[in-house]
Amino acid sequence: MSFDPETGEFTFPDWNTEQVLQDLGKFIPPHNLLHKPSQLKPFECDGLTTHRKIPRLVLLPETIQQCQKIMRYCHKNEIPVIARGAGTGITGGVLPDDLSIVVSLTKFNRIEKIDPLQRIAVVQPGVRNLAISEAAKPFGLQYAPDPSSQIACSIGGNVAENSGGVHCLKYGLTVNNVTGIKIINSEGELIEIGGGECMDSPGFDFLALMHGSEGLLGIIVEITLKLIPLPPASQVVLAVFHSMIDGGKAVSDIISSGIIPAGLEMMDKVTIDAIESYMQAGYPKADALLLCELDGNQIDINLQMKIVQQILKDNNAFETRTSHNDEERELYWKARKSAFPAVASIQPDFYLLDGTVPRKALPEVLEKIATLSEQFGLRVANVFHAGDGNLHPIIMYNAEVEDDYEKAVQLGAEILKHCISKGGSFTGEHGVGAEKKDQMCQQFGPLELLQFHRIKAQLDVSGILNPGKAIPTLHRCAELGAMHVHNGEMPHADLPRF
Amino acid sequence: MPYDISQQICEQVKHAQQGAQPISIHGSHSHDFMLPEFAESMQLNLNEHQGIVDYQPTELTVTALSGTRLEEIQQTLATEHQRLATDFPVYTAEATLGGAVSIGHTGSSRPYYGAIRDHILGASLVNTSGEIMHFGGKVMKNVAGYDVSRLLTGTRGTLGPILEITLKVQPLPEQQSTLSIDLDENAAIEIMNRLAGQSLPISASVYFNHTLFIRLEGTEAGIQQARKTINGTEVDDGVSFWSSIQQQNHDFFNSSLPIWRVIVPASTPGLQLQNQQQSLIDWCGGLRWVQASEITQADITYIAERGGYIESFRGSKPMQQAELMSPLQKQMHAKIKSAFDPDKLFNPKLSNFA
Question: Is the ipTM of this structure higher than 0.95?
Fold first, then answer.
């Protein structure tokens, strides 16, 4: 057994590249079998570019049958497999290692079906997120989840990470907008999960289990999505404040007024300034900026807009602007979605976080971030899905300066620890990947981690699916000294600790 | 005040494990009519484990112990002009939150507001050693670890006793209104689906006895506009109609004939099973309740060909979930059952997936 469900430890034998190439060449055409250094280079990392490793082999299967054969072969030979979409993830979820083969699903790029009457789309995993809404638009429909990377990210990756986006506040996350998937397990079996075109399916909710499982439980090869009507009208109000606290309070007040905006986003001065110098969106100078989008019929929007305007005023917004047309509205959003490249343009090295907290804790957490930022001597830009309580602090550092990166990671860990202590989570939508496993030890105790390992051990019998990602071993947590003490007793007392 | 008997539950599980004795887990029994006989000599009653633990109106979340009555939750939420975020079936006044999640059937708003599972944020579960595990949380977004809290939907207690559940809630709509249109079945199915593709404040659509009923919820202005688009007749006592569907005390459900639950893609035209009498269409066409003395193999094939499945519901011998699964799906269930409950302690009579 190469994977121990009781600890999460795994070992795999080494393999001979020439031999494996020869074997795989029997069912994968040569042009889809990448093994030259120049071919492998693009697969060395995802969006987390601080972590790189050139894989030994990359496969580009084109059919479900090819994927099944790959899995059967790797299962038999105990070769780990990392399934990869567009590679836009930002936690190193598809970071290669010495023993794994990368299976890229970019050739699975067809929208197989759009059924406007039933409001569903059947797509392959390599289809870009935005391409789905573009294809649905002529029917007056859209696919709601819209991660900032939607122009490039693939829908298979969205399922694997359970991606969010600015419109998830009203329309839900990926898990709420997918009705079925087909996966291939580590033994190469093709399994249908969820209802497909139906709204229910017998048994456990495996569809939810697969969402956000980061390639550890199966390779997704087909997805059925829910499409929703395009709203007849949408309008954004932009409001600026002299403090993040006022902005944060306005967010809480809007939600408690009974209005669920289509998007409710906030950013701080560092981000506003960065965006302005990057793309001149015309954002006013301020310490905090709030974007609130309302959608639906125009009469409702008008009524709700009045309430929102009043709340903004009550929370000391010193200027508000309302979009007059779709171009203006899209410009406001374009600027928001450019926040990361904009910050990168002023400081190319940054470390992006993804904590969530209850909305009411936002002001306090923002203050804490400011204090920590000062303490560590590193600037932090804040841009976030405020309506969901999902923060994206961007820690800026200089890779040229010794220890600066380590300091950034440390600062990040402090911020996330604070989010967890406020009843939140260290990741709202980016996932755990290769890089945030230590936070798993803080958020979960050994009982939950053990349960996660047991789930994986059952569904991935050879343990070859993206091993070492997302769920830390119990040893690792023990080493970190972050073990939760249950009823005054250390669980798994027989585990060696250091 | 919540009456939290977690410790007692954990002790009972430990006891069951030590004696290698299976244990049946139940709530208020409001779904027993649709379940195969599952009682064991050792029984765990979650019905007494009840009460709202935490309600945060401004966060739109509520946390309650699994035995809390759904009615109590709705009453509490109503004091803050809120409600559960989708329709939960309430077949008896005693129906509990844990039961609703364990069964996983959503009411009429399923196509419009999502399923029960869509609004689950976190849950805690007892493992076979009688220890409490916590999954998910109380925040809107959380992708740390596998989503075990949602996985629990539809597990019928077979992965262990659920102790606590956190749900997303929603504001009460300003207004509700019901329209009816007289139509034949296929026209009704098509219209339900066409309307769902438009941005209208529809929260339920049911077709019964040549009439399509559409529930509108939203602002006065939004409903006014929808009325013009839909052009139906205003139903006087819409609220009673929808609660009769929710509680299944509508005449259709009081039939002396067995009632079957048929799940099909929403736009599937009207079904005709061999012994079918009346039918009631819910979920914008995605759920067909059918009265029939019995179903035949030909009926099962007929529905499978349309991409759906049929299960027993009332008045016939309850089916096992496993009967509705492919061999690989059964295998996957057996594996997850083993991951949580290798000794088959929890509701073993509902989990014969092998």
Answer: yes
